[in-house]
């Protein structure tokens, strides 16, 4: 039970929200991460931060240093043995130091609802009494336009990313797989987000994939599970009036390290991600660092 709970919380905690003037990342581009089995209902809170730096190639005097934070209430409910429903309510704090001055935009973001179906869940013992467990989930969901999104048409390209919400009803598709062999585990997922338009502006669709490995250690009643992994993201260009916006979108590959701690029904964990390869906004945007801390209670 604890191993499966850890796998779920480990990878779901790699949720990312981006924002910068031109890279095509935004609070509207919410990456949920894979959703594996959770054998009980749960509720929790998590905090994440993202840091970016942008300098235009054609004009070094135009720059943006962005720091974005999200505090999120989230929960999950299992329906019988095959279905799971997840809900997310974020509050975003966006701060940018640019050549035009300091900009701040805070407020509740876009709520997300995700449903998952368990294709298979297998547990077996081999001749050496080794415990082997596998799970495969697929899911779909919607991101609701509940966050504030209000900008002038002449400023929408430069200001859309700093809004609390994206202003659009978007759709998500997910698939995730986990393998646990005694105290060792592997989890991986792919996710695709289909964005719609708001005020003639459309964030590019996003594809993400990740893989993590971990090992669990028991100390008394506490389970410690350090983990390492890789995350890949590909962002399509943004569009204005159905025309692609220059120098938006791109891709990146990040390395992640974290730790999950489980005590009874309480799980506390953190994850830190650093870039390995990145090409956002034609190389004009640099990822500095991302991280997350969460506290979750199962009931």
In angstroms, what is the radius of gyration? 19 Å
Shape-level CATH architecture: Beta Barrel
Give the N-to-C terminal Cα separation: 13 Å
**Total beta-strand segments:** 18
Major sheet: size, sense and barrel closure? 12 strands, antiparallel, barrel
Fold and architecture overview:
- Strand 12 (217-219) and strand 13 (222-235) form a beta hairpin.
- It contains two helices and 18 strands.
- It has one domain (2-298): Porin (Beta Barrel), CATH 2.40.160.40.
- The strands form two sheets. It has a twelve-stranded antiparallel barrel. A four-stranded antiparallel β-sheet has the order 9-10-14-15, with no helix packed on it.
- Helices cover 5% and strands 61% of the residues.
- With 299 residues, the chain is mostly beta strands.
- The protein has helices spanning 2-12, 156-159, and strands at residues 42-55, 63-79, 83-98, 101-108, 112-125, 131-143, 170-181, 184-194, 197-198, 201-202, 206-215, 217-219, 222-235, 239-240, 243-244, 250-263, 266-280, 285-298.
């Amino acid at each position: 039970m604890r191993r499966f709970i850890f796998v779920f919380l480990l990878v779901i905690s790699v949720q990312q929200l981006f924002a910068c003037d031109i890279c095509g990342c935004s609070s509207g581009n919410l990456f949920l991460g894979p959703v594996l089995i959770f054998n009980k209902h749960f509720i929790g809170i998590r905090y994440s931060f993202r840091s970016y730096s942008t300098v235009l190639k054609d004009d070094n005097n135009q720059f943006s240093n962005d720091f974005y934070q999200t505090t999120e209430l989230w929960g999950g409910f299992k329906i019988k043995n095959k279905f799971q429903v997840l809900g997310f309510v974020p509050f975003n704090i966006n701060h940018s130091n640019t050549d035009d001055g300091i900009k701040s935009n805070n407020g509740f973001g876009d709520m997300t609802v995700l449903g998952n179906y368990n294709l298979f869940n297998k547990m077996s013992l081999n001749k050496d009494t080794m415990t082997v467990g596998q799970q495969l989930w697929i899911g779909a969901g919607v991101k609701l336009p509940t966050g504030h999104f209000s900008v002038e048409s002449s400023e929408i390209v430069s200001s859309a990313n700093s809004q609390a919400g994206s202003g659009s009803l978007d759709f998500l598709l997910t698939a995730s797989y986990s393998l646990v062999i005694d105290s060792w585990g592997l989890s991986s997922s792919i996710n695709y987000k289909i964005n719609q338009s708001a005020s003639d502006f459309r964030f590019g669709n996003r594809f993400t994939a990740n893989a993590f490995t971990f090992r669990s250690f028991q100390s008394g009643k506490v389970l410690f599970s350090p983990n390492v992994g890789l995350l890949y993201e590909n962002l399509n260009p943004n569009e204005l009036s159905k025309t692609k916006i220059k120098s938006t979108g791109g891709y990146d590959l990040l390395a992640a390290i974290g730790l999950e701690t489980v005590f009874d029904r309480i799980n506390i964990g953190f994850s830190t991600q650093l870039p390995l390869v990145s090409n956002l906004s034609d190389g004009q945007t640099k990822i500095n660092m991302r991280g997350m801390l969460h506290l979750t209670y199962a009931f």
